[in-house]
Design brief:
By secondary structure, this protein is mainly alpha-helical. The chain has a domain of 27 residues. The chain has 3 helices and no strands. Helix 1 runs antiparallel to helix 3. The two termini are 42 Å apart.
Length: 109
């Protein structure tokens, strides 16, 4: 009687698939996010004290207002901002994981 070996999924393939799916979600679905992403600003507008609001210190940054500055197509601008944000978070989380990972101690001969 022969036994069938279970297929082994590589760790690298798993992570690559996860990153690709995350970037696709960020690129495509970010355009369909809420049109009122800042709840405080939305409530301030509805209750009448929006005039007292001041611009953020980062309001002139390249990724302000959930878009990429200089890109004329709103859908593309939002998608690129989503991908850029995802890559930044992935880089920070990956770097932190590498710093904090367990390291096997070398075998003593």
């Amino acid at each position: 009687m022969s036994t069938l070996a279970e297929p082994r999924v590589s760790r690298r393939g798993f992570w690559v698939t996860g990153v690709v799916v995350s970037l696709l979600i960020a690129a495509v679905l970010s355009f369909y996010a809420s049109s009122h992403p800042d709840g405080l600003e939305f409530v301030a507008d509805r209750t009448g004290f929006i005039e007292q609001a001041e611009d953020s210190a980062t309001s002139d940054s390249p990724l302000a207002d959930y878009g990429v500055e200089g890109v004329g197509n709103e859908r593309l601008s939002t998608g690129l901002a989503g991908v850029a944000g995802s890559l930044v978070v992935l880089g920070l989380a990956g770097g932190l994981a590498l710093l904090l990972r367990r390291r096997d101690e070398p075998d003593e001969a």
